[in-house]
Design brief:
This protein is an alpha+beta fold and 90 residues long. The protein has a single domain (3-89), classed as Alpha-Beta Plaits, CATH 3.30.70. The protein has helices at residues 20-28, 64-73; strands at residues 3-12, 35-46, 49-59, 78-89.
Length: 90
């Protein structure tokens, strides 16, 4: 089975007070059997707001990307998750 590279934009939850560096650390240390985190970095959005850009590789099977996104959303402080790019690895 192949793999899929996925790039996410992870926004902090506006209702929860969490430091962006703590969110980056939580995402970097995420334990997951479905995907592998390759790069996590904070990036500026606008007016001092920041978001986290996450690059991961997920097994290419039905429903695994959705499961991976669900596990990301269960991390404390995660608000919206947006897929910025996705592609199959050979």
């Amino acid at each position: 089975m192949g793999e899929v590279a996925v790039q996410y934009k992870v926004m902090p939850d506006p209702d929860v007070e969490v430091a962006i560096d703590d969110l980056v650390s939580s995402l970097e240390n995420m334990e997951d059997s479905v995907g592998k985190i390759h790069n996590v970095e904070k990036k500026p959005l606008a007016f001092g707001l920041m978001y986290v850009e996450l690059h991961a590789v997920v097994e290419d099977a039905e429903g695994l990307v959705d499961k991976f996104e669900e596990e990301i959303s269960n991390i404390h402080g995660v608000g919206e998750i947006e897929v910025l790019g996705m592609g199959r690895l050979l």
